[in-house]
Each structure stands twice: as structure tokens, then as C-alpha cells.
Amino acid sequence: MIIGNSLLLAAPLTVARRLIELGAGIDFWKAIGFSFVRIVSGFLLALAAGIALAVAAGRFRFLEEIFYPYIMTVKSTPVASFIVLCLIWLNSKSLSVFIAFLIVLPIVYTNVLQGISSTDRKLLEMADLFRVKWWRRLLYIYIPQITPYLISACSVSIGMSFKAGIAAELIGIPSGSIGERLYEAKVYLDTGDLFAWSLVIITISVLFEKLFIYVSKLILKSGGKTKVEH
Amino acid sequence: MNIKIDKISKSFGDKKVLVNFSAVLYENQFNCIMGPSGCGKTTLLNILMGFLSPDSGTVTGVPEIKSAVFQEDRLCEQFSAVSNIRMVISKKVDTDDIIKHLNNVGIGNNSIYLPVCELSGGMRRRVAIVRAVMAESGIIFLDEPFKGLDEETKTTVIKYVKEHAKGKTLVLVTHNIDEARNFSGNIIQMAIYQ
Lengths: 230, 194
Description:
The structure holds two protein chains of two kinds. Chain A is mostly helical. Chain A has a single domain, classed as Orthogonal Bundle (MetI-like fold), CATH 1.10.3720. Chain A has nine helices and no strands. Chain B has one domain: P-loop containing nucleotide triphosphate hydrolases (Rossmann fold, 3-Layer(aba) Sandwich), CATH 3.40.50. In chain B, the strands form two sheets. Chain B has a five-stranded parallel beta sheet with strand order 5-6-7-3-8, sandwiched between helices. A three-stranded antiparallel beta sheet of chain B has the order 2-1-4, with helices on one face.
């Protein structure tokens, strides 16, 4: 009975038909591009900032103390509060960049710092004794140590950045975004569109996660070996 | 310059490991530190390497640039034998030289590019020894370096160390008298503090 009522729950065939219809239009791809570029930009910026802050905090312990309240605040504040605040500060087009950034930053920072903290002290002693240069320490000791923590952080945060980024777009309704399409689906009670767009978000999030993790592992693995041995 | 260890003491909590210990390690010679397990050999080595400070007493004359074979291999697990050695030596040293050294201690070409975590315990030990020998340093600390090597391999490795560490100060920690005699140098006997 519920399946028969497309207002409550769209039938798979309806969703598939809507997806095909949407895919035929250029606006569909533009909306995906709009949201994808912004959310991924936010993710990549947070990745770079999270690694940089964690490396700094790992090197100078007092920085960890300084960063702690800020990271904890960002981690614990509801996304909705940030979205509303950002709507006041920024234009709605940049909203998903900033929200994705805020969601990813504490996850990357915490994981990378944990990786640095758990670096084998005996290996670092060895590096001190042999006066190993900083970039070789990075390549041989820190990167292999941090890699699993970083991969795990990325794996968790990519999905979260898409979720939060789209939620931000849904509230800010930037023109031409996936969030705007979801908002329209809500206003017109178009469950078929809602399911179709949700499927699109899940797909791009999962595909990007798989691709990013694969490329990261490839770079981190091959980088060390080729640079060092020859 | 000889290394002078002058009345050093070191305790860990209530346990006194070194008490007013004095010795001289001769420059550019083989020095063997011997003694039973628990007499403080590794603690003394850690003080000489700069990882620990004595509670009292002084140590003078330790060269700035050091290398070592630790009790554990302390290798970077995901990297090959060649990479582990490359990490501590100058870029100018040719990779062929590293391979030659590894071959000298019986590590064949089929193993030199494998991650060291895939090598046997004995092979890993030999990689650590070659790393210490090839590193530019004025002094080499060897903390029970031949542990876990079979007799034939041990003979090959001792010959390799004697040949390539010539002219450097060598500090060998062992409780095996045969190893100490093999190096025929200055022997320092330690005892457990009662």
C-alpha cells in the first residue's frame, strides 16, 4: 500500500525513470558539478589544514594545547548552528565549502595527530643517532606511520563532508546546487526527485571516496620507494 | 680522543644499575664491554649514545657523529634493505656500493629490494649491521649485534665488521667471550651491582 503511494515512498521504477529524465538534462550535471566542486574543495582544504596543524602540534606540543579548545568546539557544535552563522558571514554559494571544511578538519587533525603521537620512539631515537635529515624522517618514519590513520580519517570524512555540505545547501539554497534540487523536491512533495537526488549524492560520495583512497594509497606507497631507492 | 667514563652512576627508581663506574674506551680501536645480563651494559651504551644522562659522573670524548646496531633491529619495516641503508647515508654513495655491502654479509640480490618485514630475523640483523657500518661516523656501538645469527653467518659478519670498521672506534657489547676474543681489543668487564 505504501509502495503504491508515490508521495510517501517512491517506487524503484519511478526513481529510475526520474534519474534517466534528470540525466538527460544539462542542469542535472551542472548541479552535480556545482556541489561536487564545492564540497570536494572544502574537503581538500580541510585535509591540507588538518595535516599541517597536526604536524605543527606533533612537533611543538604547546600548540596541541592551544588547538585543543578550538578543535573540540568545532567538533561539538551542531552543523546547523554553523550553517546559520555562515549564512550571515558568507554568501550561500561558498557555504558548502566552509561547512565541509569544518566537518573534515577535526577528524583529519585528530587522526593525523594520533598517528604522529604513536610513532615508534625507538625509530626516532635511531634517526636522532644517525642524524637522519628531516625529509628522510618524514618519508621513512612519519608517512608510513600516519598513512593508515590518514586513510581512515579520509574514509570517514568524505561521506560526512557530502552529508553536511548538501545539508548546508538545503538550508542556504544556493542557486544551481543539489541542495536546491532537494529543497524543490521537498516543497513540491516530489518524492521521486528526492530519492533520485539522494541516490546521486550517495553515488558520487562513494565513488569519490573509493577513487580518493585508491589514489592516495598509490601515491603514498610508490612515492617512498621510487624516490628513495634510485 | 679516548672516551673517558668517570664514576658514573645510574638508577631506575630504587634499582641501582651503575654505581661509580669508570672505564676508558680507546679511540680507533675495538672495545668490548662484557658482563652478565642485567649488569647495566645497555644502560651504559644508552648513556654513551646520549639517550640517557647519568645521575652522577661524567662521560667525555664521545664523537659527535655516531652509528649503532641496537638490541632490536630498528629498521623501517615497509622499506627494503637498500632503502633502510640509504636513509642514513649520503646521496653520493652509489646504490651498487650498498648492494655490494649487503652481498658481503650474505644477503642476496633477490632479497635486497624486499620490504625488510619480509626478511628473516638473521637477515634483518645483518641489514642493521651494514647500516651501522656504512653510516658516516667516528664510532659504532654494537649492542649484542650477532644475536640470532648461526655460527657460519656470524663468522662472515664478524669478518665484514672487522674489515669495514677499521679505523673507527668500535664499542661492542656482548656476554659471549668468543665474540670479544674475535675482535681482540680492549675488554671491559662489568659486574652486577650487589
